[in-house]
Amino acid sequence: VQLVESGGGSVQAGGSLRLSCAASGYTYSGNCMGWFRQAPGKEREGVARIATGGGSTYYADSVKGRFTVSQDRGKNTVYLQMNALKPEDAAMYHCAADLGGMCLRWDDFGYWGQGTQVTVS
Fold first, then answer.
1. Contact call for residues 31 and 24 (beta carbons, < 8 A)
2. Is it the case that residue 46 has pLDDT exceeding 90?
């Protein structure tokens, strides 16, 4: 299983970024893909997740209405569109996979990417 994130960068408050996570090494559909973030000195936080089979999505309260998780099944890629970014959104963002998961919880993810840094000033 390989997960490779991209799309991070530096943006001003109120701006937007789109993160991508390219998945390989396993059958993409029928799993759960998630986005998590961790800022220095803080615990890792689940941000958004998507069931790759049915497409159901789930969000942390802190990002509802601002972030959107989506997927391109043809490219085995998950996206995180982040709008109206706030300084508190700054963190390392990781993509994760829960193989065979029902996408009901934040804590079943066993495969992780290296992360992409998001800075908001």
1. no
2. yes
Q: Is 30 left (phi over 0), alpha (psi -120 to 50) or beta?
A: left
Cα 10 to Cα 111: distance, rounded to the nearest angstrom: 26
pLDDT at residue 29 tops 90: no
Q: Whose CA is closest to 38, among 111, 100, 115?
A: 115
Any idea which residue has 């993509």 for tokens? 95
What is the rounded CA–CA span in Å between residue 9 and residue 4?
15
Structure tokens at 43: 């615990």
pLDDT at 85 over 90: yes
Q: Please provide the DSSP assignment of 47-105 as one string.
A: EEEEETTT--EEE-TTTTTTEEEEEEGGGTEEEEEE-S--GGG-EEEEEEEETT--S--
Residue 79 has pLDDT above 90, yes or no: yes
Quote the CA–CA distance of 113 and 34 in Å, as a whole number: 11
